Amino acid sequence: MPVTVTRTTITTTTSLSSGLGSPTIVGSPRALTQPLGLLRLLQLLSTCVAFSLVASVGAWTGPMGNWSMFTWCFCFSVTLIILIVELCGLQTRFPLSWRNFPITYACYAALFCLSASIIYPTTYVQFLPHGRSRDHAIAATTFSCIACVAYATEVAWTRARPGEITGYMATVPGLLKVLETFVACVIFAFIGGPSLYQDKPALEWCVAVYSICFILAAVAILLNLGDCTNILPISFPSFLSGLALLSVLLYATAIVLWPLYQFSERHGGQPRRYSDVGCSHRHAYYVCDWDRRLAVAVLTAINLLAYLADLVYSARLVFVRV
């Protein structure tokens, strides 16, 4: 099921445009000389340099370092696959919808690299002693930022424009689905320990909200990547509208309950950071419970805004069958 943007039409036809105003050359080395090809080479180079710098000095101990190293290696690997597919003209043999996959991946990669560019220096690099390892880690952070900008630029270049016929994932609601699932994953990372919500029904409800909305948004993404939107018992536009509305309502409850039961003394919360003993000292690779609670509250607000925007933008899409 394809789409168009801002009172436009989403269709499953393959666009001849790369999103940059010129035809895309595929199955030829000339594809690398096009603006999008050069941008992907920059993505490949920057992620390769980032993980190489860190690996050369072993500066990736602990969960935060592991996350950053995984991010750079994963982004390098998938970007290399995309380049090979386009160089060899294998889009029709690729198991996922090529109309939706590259921009979906680019959006995820931009968010992954952004998270690594923030988490790695704040929770790892600042605790390193001055020397070669710290210099390599700082340089890796710089290249991670370059990769983030490069992936974000690809999203900006290839996203759908008003009046274009395109895949759903290139539209604003499609990209918001990526943001929604990514933010939910970060929330899950912060509430990994059940101590933040265990034995508190209101907080357990919030965790259920995060899980339900994540699963539904992930299903919408997977249906588009697999070109399987026709298997739903209801029309895909109705599914998207219902999903956005349900998620807004569920997150509206979480944005009230999570801060209320985490920061209100009346409901057993801790209103001040200094009351959490774990936050009194700075530790490498460690985020104290109060900071985790605050992070989840902020991320809940971000996702609520994302779902509200999703609900508004979804109403402006026109779906067509081809």
TrEMBL record:
Membrane topology: Multi-pass membrane protein
Domain MARVEL: 31-163, 168-319
Compartments in which it is found: Membrane
Domain of life: Eukaryota
One Pfam family it belongs to: MARVEL
Regions crossing the membrane: 38-61, 67-90, 102-125, 137-157, 178-196, 202-226, 238-261, 294-313
GO cellular component, one term: cell-cell junction
Keywords for this protein: Membrane, Repeat, Transmembrane, Transmembrane helix
Keyword Repeat found: yes
Family statement: Belongs to the MAL family.
Name recorded for this polypeptide: Myeloid-associated differentiation marker
